[in-house]
Specification:
Strand order of the largest sheet: 2-3-4-5-6
Number of strands: 8
Order of helices and strands: EEEHHEEEHHEE
Largest sheet: 5 strands, antiparallel
Number of helices: 4
Radius of gyration: 16 Å
Strand content: 25-35%
Length: 180
């Protein structure tokens, strides 16, 4: 793959600004997501390839969720809900290799590079159905991605405009257009 398109809901997606062409976003608990963002921002440049990155990131996602799970179950005496933790989606170039990885709430890491598409959060199903539908239509990829995001923001809870589309290449991350 020469480049990766990634959609940015204004407050959910982060990138390794000026370090490496790598972006990530988390769904679920914003506080835990912000902790992950800070942790990842401090370490993004330390990874030489995806094989080094994904197990470390998976471990941190599991650790953060484990801390939250302890607070919820033992201190608050409440039932665990996956929305109390985070799941993360990461895409970009590490060590010259493109990648799309998802980290679930127990830290399980799964690559989606072969599929070329993945989504997390409340818009996941809407995005997946839209993506599969639009694969059958002959049109420009950016236009298809814009339609997918319109459908998601129109129907999925917790997904709203504005959103941006970022292009991720070996050399960096750039906004493809103004916020929509």
């Amino acid at each position: 793959t020469d480049d990766i398109g990634i959609t940015h809901f204004q407050n959910k997606l982060r990138r390794a600004e000026g370090i490496i062409p790598l972006a990530w976003g988390c769904d679920g608990n914003d506080t835990v997501g912000n902790e992950f963002d800070l942790w990842m921002s401090d370490r993004a440049s330390s990874f030489s390839d995806w094989q080094t990155l994904y197990p470390v990131v998976a471990g941190e996602v599991a650790r953060l969720n484990g801390v939250r799970r302890t607070i919820v179950k033992e201190l608050a005496k409440a039932e665990w809900n996956p929305g109390y933790g985070i799941r993360c989606l990461m895409a970009g170039w590490v060590g010259g290799q493109s990648g799309i990885w998802q980290f679930d709430d127990v830290g399980q890491a799964t690559s989606y590079l072969a599929q070329g598409f993945y989504a997390i959060g409340s818009g996941k199903l809407y995005a997946a159905v839209s993506y599969e539908t639009l694969k059958r239509i002959d049109d420009k990829p950016l236009k298809k991605l814009r339609v997918i995001m319109d459908i998601v923001t129109d129907h999925a809870p917790h997904c709203q405009k504005p959103f941006m589309i970022w292009g991720i290449t070996k050399t960096g991350i750039t906004p493809i257009e103004a916020p929509i």
